[in-house]
Amino acid sequence: ILDKNENGTPIFAYGSDYPAAYQDENFCIDGVVLPDRRETAKLAEVNAVYRWIRAEVLNRDTGWIRVFNEYSHVSLSGLALEWSLEKNGRVIKSGRKADLCAEAGESEDILLDLNLSGLSGREEGQEDGFGVYLLNLKFVLKEKKLWAPEGFADTWIQLELGESSCAQRIFGMT
């Protein structure tokens, strides 16, 4: 409950902030969303555990990824994929794929314009290619829904692109 403390400062009051007659001693403000609807770090963890879309890098040099649609009855056609490639925390490439089509329970391979083969070492005229490369994938709504606006992030995934060009598997995928 939005209330004010003894100094008049707005606070979210609960449980023991009120006399015993007004509460049942079963209270806590430690949810994934705060009373004013601000997100906590726990929400990102819940999203990762409950996500219905998974991804893996098939080949970091060519840019092929595989997206798994683990929804039981919805295709990915209502979502767009917004991606960005980071090197040492700085975005060096980004793009959008709006033509996702994996049906429920299916997967699809998607080619992203990563072109990492030229970034594997020091070359004349290029910056040092060594570093930490992260591929950020965000699956967003293409259209407004009753429950969320257009562009709402349904799922976000971050994949580390290691030195190997073999498939990088994450989140326990085998």
Question: Could you explain the architecture of this structure?
Answer:
A four-stranded antiparallel beta sheet has the order 6-5-8-9, with no helix packed on it. Helices cover 6% and strands 34% of the residues. It is elongated, with a radius of gyration of 22 Å. It has 174 residues and is mainly β.
How do the strands and helices of this protein lay out in sequence?
Blueprint lengths: L1 E3 L5 E3 L28 H10 L2 E7 L4 E6 L9 E9 L2 E8 L9 E5 L21 E9 L11 E9 L13
Antiparallel strand pairs: 1-2, 3-4, 4-7, 5-6, 5-8, 8-9
Characteristics:
single chain; 174 residues; mainly beta; four-stranded antiparallel beta sheet; 1 helix; 9 strands; elongated; disordered C terminus
Summarize the main sheet: 4 strands, antiparallel
Poorly predicted segments: 120-126, 164-174
Radius of gyration: 22 Å
Helix content percent band:
under 10%
Structural class: mainly beta
DSSP helical segment count: 1
Q: Give the N-to-C terminal Cα separation.
A: 46 Å
Beta fraction: 25-35%
Query: Strand tally, please?
Result: 9
